[in-house]
Amino acid sequence: MGYSESFHPKFKSDLKKIDKSVAKEIKDKHLDIILENPMEADRLKGKLSHFHSYHFQKNGTQYRIAYEILEEDEIIFHYMVATRENFYKKLDNRI
Question: 7, CA 20 to 30 Å: which among 23, 57, 65, 72?
Answer without folding.
Answer: 57
